[in-house]
Design goal:
By secondary structure, this protein is α+β, with helices and mostly antiparallel strands. The chain is about 45% helix and about 25% strand.
């Protein structure tokens, strides 16, 4: 388990990814896309450039909870090890995770601002 500061940094990066993905979803909805949508992987790696393809229902299922995020499967390891999240489900190429501890508190607070 790492420090609360490290968990905070992880959460801040992942929250920024979530905000970008919310903008992608709004654009996809305006375009009425029906195919899986390319979203940014919400893992802790600030250099990750992987794309996760999700349908709108899959994306909305992750977002039902303010602490819900998704990663390309395998990309959740560092956040889990840091104590910033736990795995909820592995669904094909993506893993749904729930932020916990300091990271969870930050994710909840950030979702209230959206």
């Amino acid at each position: 388990m790492t420090t609360p500061l490290a968990q905070e940094r992880i959460a801040e990066h992942q929250i920024a990814c979530r905000q970008a993905n919310n903008r992608i979803l709004r654009k996809a909805e305006r375009l009425e896309l029906i195919h899986p949508i390319p979203f940014i992987c919400e893992c802790a790696d600030t250099t990750c450039t992987k794309v996760v393809q999700l349908s709108r229902p899959e994306y909305k299922a992750v977002r039902r909870h303010p602490r819900g995020f998704f990663n390309m499967t395998g990309h959740e390891a560092s956040s889990v090890k840091a104590g910033a999240e736990r795995i909820v489900a592995v669904i094909g190429d993506f893993t749904m995770v729930m932020k916990i501890g300091v990271a969870g508190e930050l994710a909840t607070a950030a979702s209230k601002g959206n």
